[in-house]
Structures are given as structure tokens and as C-alpha cells.
Amino acid sequence: MSKNAKIAAGGVAVGLLLLIWLPWWAAFLIVLGVPAAAYLALDPAQRRRLRRVTRKEIGR
Q1: Any idea what DSSP says for residue 29?
Q2: DSSP codes, 38-54
């Protein structure tokens, strides 16, 4: 399993656990809010580097 696949599987597992313990809307906000907050916490240079790397991988 690749590193990204492991991260995706972990995210799905956490999302399912949150759905069991919290109302669906709260779990939805957490699942979408945490990555969005992490992206917004990056400075502009880090955001540009992240976008550039993502685009290179898509072009493979």
C-alpha cells in the first residue's frame, strides 16, 4: 500500500468513527474543516509549493 493510500484509509476510518459518535453534520464539518484549516495555516510560499507538487503528480 502506498503512503497516500494509507492516509486515505485512515481518513475514511476516522470519518466513519466520527459518524458513529457525532451527528452527521458535525462529522462533516470536522472532516472538511481540518484539512481546510491546515491549508489556510500555510504561508503563501508553502501553498505555491504544494500546488506545484500536486500539479506535477497529476501530469504523470
Answers
A1: H
A2: HHHHS-HHHHHHHHHHH
Q: What SS3 class is residue 60?
A: coil
Cβ atoms of residues 15 and 24 within 8 Å: no
Distance CA 51, CA 14 (A): 26
For residues 30 and 18, is the Cβ–Cβ distance under 8 A?
yes
d(CA 29, CA 27): 5
CB 27 within 8 A of CB 16: no
Q: Which of 50, 25, 26, 53 has the alpha carbon at shortest distance from 40?
A: 50
pLDDT digits (tens, 9 = 90+) for 3-42: 888 988 988 888 888 888 888 888 788 878 888 999 999 9
